[in-house]
Each structure stands twice: as structure tokens, then as C-alpha cells.
Design a protein that fits this description.
single chain; mainly alpha; Helicase, Ruva Protein, domain 3; Zinc Finger, Delta Prime, domain 3; post-AAA+ oligomerization domain-like; 3 domains
């Protein structure tokens, strides 16, 4: 695999100077050089791509020459007109597209709003569809924040709808707001990990039967077969918690969701710990009653 790295600014500068000095195959007979500001803008615009630099230089030379015969120096205005807009090196269908969206995602994950905003604007300046970025922010809110801050998903979806309503450029600010919110929110991939592990077991173990006591029993036959028998309505218990088993027997005791100690998940973790302790007590009491009856 051959990886092509961008040329340095000095290398691009030398290529441009050579093209301007060459009177046979270059632009030596067309223009009288290029001023410093124009050269700096051209080098920055090229993004390390010599072909882009030379194509832009040629267009700028045509503009500088105009319709007259007088040779003049290429100016910053010529470069800006030739490039039409100050586009940064970016290929919506190529490697740089995936590099920069990865940079946004990882900057948010790393709680770095400044870097996330920079890469966001890089994509916009490169002509990326803002809705594509908005969709990735929604994905990030669910994957990397989860219920550590459940508002993050709401903010991301609201930003997407705001962009649809306002369009460019006003709607881009809403996406920027969502990016900053997600970058500064507490992070957790616990839901993502739990979902992945549950999906793994669902595929590995196939169609494990639903425990009888939590099956739906709409007919008398189903009730006779034991569907729903022994089910305890949690709202009718003292602590609104029955401690019943809900997983198939083969997976009993499996824990998929492990909350972090950050944001709202800290409270969720405390709740789960309490429920787990209550469940243990309920099962011990049940065993004691069974042993006493024997």
C-alpha cells in the first residue's frame, strides 16, 4: 500500500516559483511573479497538493493577464478569485473525509470542544453536507455519552432538526452547539457495550424460551399451560420491586449493563446496587421459607 503524504509549504513554494520562472513551459512570459500575500494564500490553499497549487496558479495568471498585453504581478485577489473560495484540502469521497470525521468523533470523546469545532469547520469549509456531521453527532451522543447525560441525545437531535429548519449557514450554529455540548458532557459507553454484549448472546444462544411467569397469557389455554403463573406485579410490592428473574434460565445472573460513576449514571449505579441487594434478600427469604416448609 502506497500512502501519499502532503508536500511541505516550502516544497509547494519551490514548485510555484519554478513554474513562474520557466519561460518555455511555465508562466515566465505571462506574469511578472507573485507577491508575498498571494504566495502565502496559494500555498495554504493547496494543502500540500502540487496539482491544486499549479492549477490555481494558472487560473490566477490568466486573471492577472486579463485581456491586455501588459504583464503584471499575481496578487492575493487573483488567487482568491482563481480558487473561488478558500477551500481546504478535503475530499468528500476519499480518505481525508474519514480522517476528519474520525477527528471530530475522537475530539468529542476526548472532551476537547476546541479541536472538535476546528475539525467541524474544516469539514464545512471543504463542502461537507452539515446533515452528515449532525447524524454523526447523534450517533456519538448515544454511543459515547448514553445516559451519563441523556440530554445529549436530545440536543443532538434538536440540532439536526434546527439545521433542517434553518439551513446554511444559520443552522450550522446549532450543530456547533451540539458538538460543544457533547464534548463537554460526561462520557459513558456502558449502554453501547451492554447492547453489543446482549446482541452477541442473542445470536450465540438462539431462541432461548421466555420464562413462563413473564409470558403473555391472553387465552385460557395459555393460562392452563402456565403462562404468566407466579408473576408478581412490581407496583403492588412494598418497594415497587419484586426481585423476579426476567432472563432465560441459561443466562440467569448475566449482567450486561455496568454504569460508570459519571453524570446521571452515578445515580443509576446506586439504584442498581440497591436493587441487586434487595433481590439477594428476597431470594434468601424465599429459600428460607422453602427450607422451613420441607
Amino acid at each position: 500500500m502506497l500512502v501519499l503524504e502532503p508536500l511541505s509549504e516550502d516544497q509547494i513554494g519551490r514548485i510555484v516559483e519554478h513554474a513562474l520562472e520557466d519561460r518555455e513551459r511555465g508562466l515566465g512570459n505571462v506574469v511578472d511573479g507573485i507577491d508575498k500575500k498571494a504566495m502565502a494564500a496559494l500555498v495554504a490553499f493547496s494543502g500540500g497538493d502540487a496539482r491544486r497549487a499549479l492549477n490555481t496558479l494558472e487560473q490566477a495568471a490568466i486573471l492577472a493577464k486579463g485581456g491586455g498585453k501588459k504583464v503584471r504581478t499575481i496578487t492575493l485577489s487573483d488567487i482568491e478569485k482563481a480558487s473561488q473560495r478558500r477551500m481546504l484540502r478535503y475530499d468528500r469521497a476519499g480518505e481525508e473525509h474519514y480522517n476528519i470525521i474520525s477527528a471530530i468523533h475522537k475530539s468529542m470523546r476526548g472532551s476537547d470542544p476546541d479541536a472538535a469545532l476546528y475539525w467541524f469547520t474544516r469539514m464545512l469549509e471543504g463542502g461537507e453536507d452539515p446533515l452528515y456531521i449532525a447524524r454523526r453527532v447523534v450517533r456519538f451522543a448515544a454511543e459515547d455519552i448514553g445516559i451519563a447525560d441523556s440530554h445529549a441525545l436530545q440536543v443532538a437531535i434538536a440540532a439536526t432538526e434546527a439545521y433542517r429548519f434553518l439551513g446554511t449557514p444559520e443552522g450550522e450554529l446549532a450543530i456547533a452547539q451540539a458538538i460543544v455540548y457533547c464534548a463537554t458532557a460526561p462520557k459513558s459507553n456502558s449502554v453501547y457495550t451492554a447492547y453489543s454484549n446482549a446482541r452477541r448472546d442473542a445470536r450465540q444462544y438462539g431462541e432461548l424460551p421466555v420464562p413462563l411467569h413473564i409470558r403473555n397469557a391472553p387465552t385460557s389455554l395459555m393460562k392452563e399451560l402456565g403462562y404468566g403463573r407466579g408473576y408478581i406485579y412490581d407496583h403492588e410490592t412494598e418497594d415497587r420491586f419484586s426481585g423476579q428473574e426476567h432472563l432465560p434460565d441459561k443466562l440467569r445472573g448475566t449482567v450486561y449493563y455496568h454504569p460508570t460513576g459519571f453524570g446521571y449514571e452515578k445515580l443509576v449505579g446506586e439504584r442498581l446496587k440497591w436493587w441487586s441487594e434487595q433481590k439477594r434478600k428476597i431470594h434468601e427469604e424465599k429459600k428460607d421459607k422453602e427450607n422451613t416448609s420441607d
